[in-house]
Amino acid sequence: xxxxxxxxxxxIVPIIEIWGILRMGDWIGGWNTFLLILVLSAxxxxxxxxxxxxxxxxxxxxxxSGQIPGRAMIDGICxxxxxxxxxxxxxFSDLFGIIMLLPFTRPLFRNMILQWLExxxxxxxxxxxxx
Length: 131
Hints:
The chain is mainly α. The chain has helices at residues 2-28, 30-64, 70-87, 91-101, 106-122. Helix 3 crosses helix 5 (106-122). The longest helix has 35 residues, at 30-64. The chain is flat and about 55 Å long.
């Protein structure tokens, strides 16, 4: 079942991204579109680096005080995914990447991840296997 979603994403996401790039190219011109994608990627890399450092420091602080850094770990996952999305060429992936990076919009994704994890735990979707 999960493989169907992955296959659909591999096919559909690039089509949507190419469509977005072509539409933006028609609207502001090809070179401007190219430069905009480069600027968004560079700015996103800087924001990802800054936010990643903040999350790392927070996780270290929580561990030093004897707490489990659960929230910081999920924030780290959001920052990592946001940074990866910003590396992909396209405007829709950049939009989701930026939303995942910003500290005031990240709780939306954090809550979705926490709900998904809770659902998997309640349904017995997590198993421990030995290699």
